[in-house]
Records
---
Amino acid sequence: METEERTLQLPQKRYYRQRAHSNPIADHSVEYPPSPNDMDWSPLYPELKDPTCEKKVEFVDVGCGYGGLLVTLSPMFPSTLILGLEIRVKVSDYVIDRVAALRSQNKGQYENIACIRTNAMKYLPNYFRKAQVRRCFANCILNSQYENIACIRTNAMKYLPNYFRKAQAL
Ligand SMILES: C[S@@+](CC[C@H](N)C(=O)[O-])C[C@H]1O[C@@H](n2cnc3c(N)ncnc32)[C@H](O)[C@@H]1O
């Protein structure tokens, strides 16, 4: 008998609810790389399992919440690796499970998005090299440490296509 690969179901938000705020100054038990050179991205993006692939994460959604923007961006920029950072553990778990389910239901798609639980205010420089990140979507929780990052106020979920062409070279 043939064994069928089980398709993962999309997670239900009600099982991943958490208080709206998590203190970014508090000491959370977060695993983070000592420096960008120590970060192994291959478990997050299937493409990077090939050791000859030199792609890097170029878009970052800081405070990605339940991952709506990641999911919107994924088909718009299919060849760009996009990362969501989220401090709340249950919320980041939701995004991780959501991406796994989307990948399993749509073969070959959503492989360019991933999420990690971290405190972006403390550890952002541990993940990314200088000039690595081309676009950073943030809820303005950051003091920009990078000169190539700018911020505009918009509802990205609604208006993102108004700013960028599909797969625009930025
Ligand atoms: C206003 S919500 C926005 C969620 C999402 N970007 C959206 O537009 O629906 C801000 C999110 O940032 C997360 N957050 C706040 N401080 C953070 C930090 N220091 N590092 C990572 N995530 C953080 C919160 O847990 C929350 O989910």
---
Amino acid sequence: MEASLEAEFVSKSIYDNLVQSVNNNLGQLHRYYEIRKKALGYDTFYGYDTYVPLIKDYNVTMTYEEAQILLSNALAPLGDTYIKDLEKGFNNRWIDVYEDDSKYTGAYSWGTYDSHPYVLMNYDNTLDSALTLAHEMGHALNSYYSDKAQPYQSADYPIFTAEVASTMNELFVTDYLIERASSDQEKLYLINKQVENIRGTVFVQVMFAEFEQRTHALLESGQPLSAEVLNNLWLEVIQKYFGPGYNVLDEQKYDWARIPHFYYNFYVYKYATSMSAAFSLFNQIKAEKEGSVEAYLEFLSAGGSDYPVDILKKAGVDMNSSEPVDGILAYFGTLLTQMEELLDKTSTGMTSSNTHTVIAGDVLWKIASQYNVSLEELMSINKLQDKDLITIGQKLIIPAN
Ligand SMILES: [Zn+2]
């Protein structure tokens, strides 16, 4: 473990503290599942129920031009220099925006030392696309500033700091949208999005990190790691993280095997530390703390010129303390309280009366005709890609007609 962490000069105590802090706050994650369960009106709660939208028929669309304006406004607290360079990227074709035949999927930022960064997008007019653009432009500007300030050999930045620059932008954009939400529905949708983001980036990644920590500890204590040992350990870890209200399916015991990161050691914890660091810096900049913007731009210009933990320390966040992690977990709790208040206020929360539990012999078109809705609508509201892929016990949302 030390050998893996040493590659980025991270001490074992950072890893251990991260796992410990999240363990101390697992009650918040359990609370989130209880809130969802109640809002959806379910007696049981399975993994896939995490993804059922809490708001009926609600979708945000955004053109690429609108996303550019959103980013320029939402990231304004990062200062005029940052916005000027962001817009330089927009206006000078750094970005390959739309999907095209044979184009690589997903999104990333790439460049060489003496070129400007290039960003690959597959922009599809969704809010997620706009957030991806914010994320990738965070990487692009990090490269741009580091390449400008550093000699070739120290321009490249490690992953430990890279994801701070990208996550920071997502935090600013989501926060900006939540503050300006024009209805309770919109606010609830955005807060749930932020909650999901923290759940996926902090809680789930630390769950992976703990599983990894424990598998290595078993091996070091001389225990053979058979598939059965790993399956049981995995079940134990997910039940502990997701809590008593979450029903684990027996098939979930194999899930660990499909996570590629477990085959290259001690990596996933960085998602959680980066988001915690970004959140700490985000708060300082938002609170207009003296010198915080300048320190952040220096951070973006630092590349790999020092140990990542030291670069972050200069920017104003101490990853050797548990404060950054505790900070984002406290924020998670605040968001849950807002969610509960909004769910109480709006009657838009789903209830069991407009869901359908799949029984043996059910096929999607039959369910659609039973409720007098179109197959396309049923598939889209439930985010189903394949009309033949429904499982017994699955709960489907029935759109109003
Ligand atoms: Zn990234």
